[in-house]
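INTERNAL AUDIT FORM
Audit reference: QA-55
Scope: verify that the stored structure record matches its stored sequence.
Auditor: D.O.
Record contents follow.
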Amino acid sequence: MTRQEALAIMAMLKTAYPSFYKDFSKEELNAAVNLWATMFSEEPIQVVTEAIKVLMCTLKYPPTIADVKEKIAMITQPLMMTEMEAWDMVRRAISYYHANEAFANLPPMLRKIVGSPNRLREWAMMDSETVDSVIQSNFMRSYKAKVAQEKEYAMLPSSTKQLVAGLAQKYSLPEGGV
């Protein structure tokens, strides 16, 4: 989104929420336009506009940048599987003899959570009651946390992602895991 487009967004917000913006000085409005242009510089104007229109239908006060980023993530990112859907996929992959192949067929996020084919083998050797209670509970908690982490990471500006990648490389951490 360009500065000119951010100006159009501000005009839209001023029209929708006139009492909120009535006491803003020209300098304050200019600062807001610059901030919005910076924070949404990588977003297509159509996506930002749609996110704001959706928010205007439900919010009584102007949306924050965080509100808009969240809505953009919801609009642009494919639906994630539920915790139970993810667990069902992992549960079907639990195998002693075919763990390597089953692990390789899991989506990348599930592979990160499971860790290795050996974990699938270990779970295959446990009694099914433990797997379907303790292991399932721990997996679902880890999945929920990973989805939240990935969602938050996706909303970061690219400059912050580059900083995170640099720090991850410097300290030998997985990218997005700082």
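Auditor finding: record pair retrieved intact. The radius of gyration is 22 Å.
Action required: none
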